[in-house]
Design a protein that fits this description.
With 863 residues, the protein is of the alpha/beta class. The protein is built from 30 helices and 14 strands. Helix content is 40%, strand content 8%. It is globular and about 80 Å long. The N terminus is likely disordered.
Length: 863
């Protein structure tokens, strides 16, 4: 069918943009308490009344212009390809840079070995920055193969990328150094050649620059020296080092932090000058470990259709996991720490050396026979990617019971096409939905942690979709409607796919509108389903109680500006918002942010992911509001989406149900706070209701014991869970501060000071600074370490703790806060920096060894 030529009316676009931007700027100045629509200017209400018309006309014109653009692109495609080839022949892009494979020669005498001498130094002084996808220049140092691969100018995190990037996952996408040289990676350790014995490697030159020109000890790093996520790394190749050193005199390694000791430098420089030999990992498993591996691989690779479907479901949910066996009966690895494994798809069967299937995502087609295998993790563990999951004999029996104790059948196994990848509800429909939901609930904290520590949750735009602190809970599987009604499942399954599969820039507009409209259509059906089944409204019994023992039932999520964290239990003061997750919301979140997210994807993929997560957040919040009295919902919702958020709720979100009653009876005129308090009283152990730092009751202030814990709690509660208008130093604190409290006996305790920034709303990708409410910011203080990226470390003797918190409360200027840092802060250039830094991970190794990993310094401040 031929469509007439049409264009989007400019007035519609500009009016819509103008309304959103103008309201975003002006309304954000309004206090939360003053966001009653009846009090707004008549002009604003008039604009709001016209938005629905603009939205409808805008959407229609987008679809029309879509068809027109497709025809234009077909006509221009040939010319574009010709021009592209011509331009690429003249310009060498980083993605296409090729490097010649270097010759490696080694000194006959090797004074040091990599595993015994070199890796420990890298772990102590380098790995805090050079790990995972955000390692500068992709130079990863968790293991020797990262150094052999080298560095690259190609950015993994690039929000403006117009086309997908070929994946560059270490030990997965390419197996040889020559392959990496052909895909944009240059050498950093080739320092010993036949032609020039003393030819210094790039790594050695960087270390020499760091030794020769460090910043002054115990002084702050100048603000003009760029650090953090905004730093544009130069990624100098070997032949560019001289220019780099001239331009960046303080650019040596370790970067802007207390450097190597003389002994460490001697060991590394000697090793590099002798050729930087890295011997292959010598690794052997104990009989108990081999037995566990054989049991799992035999179970996962059974040939019946039910097992094949269950194995696929398990793999897609566990591919990021660090799996561990029963610690009581299984020996640790050679350094005394737990041994972890990862579940992979391998082209080789059990009994042979695994060859990973290197698809971009875990639910991409392998296009060949594959097997599920367990592969030992030999990397040094870093906290930001470490997600532990028990995988022992007890787990095997539990999964067998959960998935195979009831009768269900698979008529035909699903494939891996775009529709099947994007909609797990259709793909795994043969597995009873209640089984799938129970699987997620059993380890809910683990699966939520995948959202947080997976590669999606990196950067301000990726994380500003969520509040800085909020609580979550789950719908009880006995009352959750989706898992208990097969006809309802069949009706809504086609609406539950997640976007991001089609990443065409041209299709972006229409693609987004399709998923957006499907989601809102699903919410219409969901609302009818719940109203029909629960005409009196939501009941407290509809909230999952963790089967009275599961610590995952109630959780706290913190956002730290450009990263996030999750801990079981409800922590901190009463948050502004709370979520309730049902099975469709839980599963969609996992597939949108974990399984389906491609860190190497283009801007279309990344924006689709971000926009859909905005809908997910809103859905979790409105699920919770069902428990509120119908007359109170809109006023609470208006506070959550104050200022410019009111525009978005009208344009983008499903209409809030303000008519259906709640079956919960309230005694106060503050139903939100009352409900959370009742849940904490009903489930004190699961919610961790006793919080003597952030939620100190009259009873806890009357405690008169002199225990160390109570002395610490008493001092810290002075600054915890109070507004920044009262605790003046909050204004100067960064997002995450690690606090070490030194005790008189030489021991120490660790705490986290988490700054919760308040916003009028979190409904926009950009313009966050316009929506901040600094005077309402608070601190949550936890007796454990929260966050993978500390922005500041503080070290305080117990005898000075009350003085420290008092000065934080009174720090009304940057000068006063600087005095606090001078006395208790751990500066980057402090000689004691590394000892304090590693004391935090050592503390976790002693107290929670399964969760311990090295923390990340990429976002440490200029302190």
């Amino acid at each position: 069918m031929m469509l007439k030529r049409s264009y989007i009316k400019p007035t519609i676009v500009f009016n819509l943009i103008f309304i959103v931007l103008a309201t975003s700027i002006t309304a954000n100045a309004t206090n939360v308490e003053n966001n009653d629509p009846s009090k707004q200017p008549e002009q604003t209400l008039a604009l709001l009344s016209n938005i629905e018309i603009l939205k409808s006309e805008f959407s229609k014109n987008v679809l029309e212009v879509q068809n027109n653009l497709e025809k234009q692109i077909e006509l221009l495609q040939d010319n574009f390809e010709k021009s592209s080839r011509r331009i690429k022949s003249q310009l060498i892009y980083p993605e296409e840079q090729r490097y010649k494979l270097e010759e490696r020669h080694f000194s006959k005498i090797q004074h040091y070995t990599f595993k015994r001498d070199i890796q420990p130094i890298l772990n102590k002084k380098c790995l805090a920055c050079h790990a995972c996808y955000d390692a500068p220049c992709q130079l990863k140092m968790e293991k020797g193969s990262g150094l052999e691969r080298g560095a690259s100018k190609i950015k993994v995190y690039n929000g403006s990328r117009l086309s997908n990037l070929s994946p560059t996952r270490l030990d997965i996408d390419y197996q040889t150094t020559e392959e990496w040289r052909q895909h944009g990676f240059y050498p950093v350790i080739n320092g010993y050649t036949k032609q020039n014995i003393q030819s210094a490697s790039l790594m050695l030159k960087m270390l020499q620059l760091g030794q020769s020109n460090p910043f002054p000890a115990n002084k702050a790093i100048p603000q003009e020296f760029e650090l953090g996520l905004t730093r544009q790394n130069s990624c100098a190749a070997p032949d560019e080092f001289e220019q780099y050193a001239e331009t960046n005199p303080h650019g040596g390694m370790p970067l802007a932090v207390s450097g190597l000791t003389k002994k460490e430098y001697h060991i590394l420089s000697t090793w590099l000058n002798e050729g930087a030999k890295i011997s292959p990992d010598s690794f052997s498993l104990e009989p108990e470990q081999l037995d566990q591996i054989n049991r799992w691989e035999s179970w996962l690779n059974r040939e019946d259709k039910r097992t094949q479907l269950v194995a696929r479901y398990l793999y897609e949910h566990l591919f990021l996991a660090h799996l561990y066996f029963d610690q009581k009966n299984t020996p640790p690895n050679s350094n005394g720490k737990p041994l972890f494994f990862k579940l992979i798809r391998s082209f080789t069967p059990p009994g042979e050396l695994p060859i990973p299937v290197n698809t971009t995502r875990p639910n991409d087609a392998a296009n060949a026979t594959f097997y599920y295998r367990l592969q030992p993790i030999t990397d040094t563990l870093v906290n930001k990617t470490h997600i532990a999951y028990r995988f022992d004999e007890q787990r095997l029996k539990a999964l067998q019971q959960l998935f195979f104790s009831t009768d269900w059948e698979v008529i035909q196994l699903p494939g891996y096409n775009e529709a099947e990848r994007g909609n797990p509800f259709v793909t795994f429909s043969a597995i009873p939905a209640k089984i799938r939901y129970q699987f997620l609930l059993n380890d809910a904290a683990f699966f939520v942690r995948n959202f947080i520590r997976g590669p999606v949750c990196r950067g301000q735009i990726a994380t500003d979709v969520i509040r800085d602190q909020f609580w979550i809970m789950f719908e009880d599987p006995e009352y959750e409607r989706y898992v208990n009604d097969e006809l309802y499942q069949l009706t809504v399954n086609p609406l539950l796919g997640v976007p991001g599969q089609n990443v065409s820039l041209i299709d972006f507009g229409s693609e987004w509108l399709i998923y957006h409209d499907k989601r809102n259509k699903y919410l219409n059906m969901r609302q009818r389903q719940y109203n029909n089944n629960y005409p009196s409204g939501a009941k407290l019994s509809h909230i999952w109680d963790g089967d009275q023992h599961n610590q995952s039932a109630f959780q706290t999520i913190f956002r730290h500006h450009d990263s996030a964290s999750i801990i079981p239990g409800w922590h901190g003061g009463i948050p502004k918002t709370t979520w309730l997750l049902d099975y469709p919301l839980f599963e969609r979140t996992f597939y949108e942010l974990v399984v389906g997210f491609n860190v190497f994807g283009n801007v279309s993929h990344q924006v689709q992911t971000r926009l859909y997560f905005d809908l997910i957040r809103n859905e979790g919040e409105t699920n919770f509001l069902r428990f509120m009295p119908a007359p109170s919902r809109n006023s609470i919702y208006q506070q959550w989406y104050a200022g410019s958020g009111q525009i978005v709720t009208f344009i983008n979100y499903h209409e809030l149900d303000t008519k259906t009653a709640s079956a919960v009876k309230f005694k106060t005129n503050k139903p939100y706070t009352e409900l959370l308090g009742r849940l904490m009283a009903q489930y004190p152990r699961l919610t961790q209701a006793t919080d003597n730092i952030n939620r100190c009751t009259k009873h806890c202030t009357q405690q008169k014991n002199n225990s160390i814990t109570e002395r610490i709690n008493h001092a810290l509660r002075l600054i915890a869970a109070k507004r920044a208008s009262l605790i003046l130093g909050i204004k100067w604190l960064p997002d995450v501060s690690f606090l070490r409290i030194n005790l008189p006996d030489g021991d120490y305790r660790v705490y986290s000071l988490i700054r919760n920034r308040m916003h009028t709303n979190v409904a926009f990708m950009l313009g966050e600074s316009l929506r901040l409410q600094e005077s309402l910011d608070t601190l949550t203080i936890t007796p454990t370490l929260v966050g993978s990226y500390p922005n500041l470390m503080l070290q305080v003797d117990l005898s000075e703790l009350e003085k420290f918190t008092s000065l934080i409360a009174l720090a009304n200027s940057e000068i006063n806060f600087e005095r606090i840092i001078n006395h208790w802060g751990v500066r980057r250039m402090s000689p004691d920096f590394w000892n304090v830094f590693h004391s935090f991970s050592q503390y976790m190794s002693q107290h929670t060894p399964l969760e311990a990993g090295i923390y990340d310094l990429n976002r440490y401040g200029h302190f």
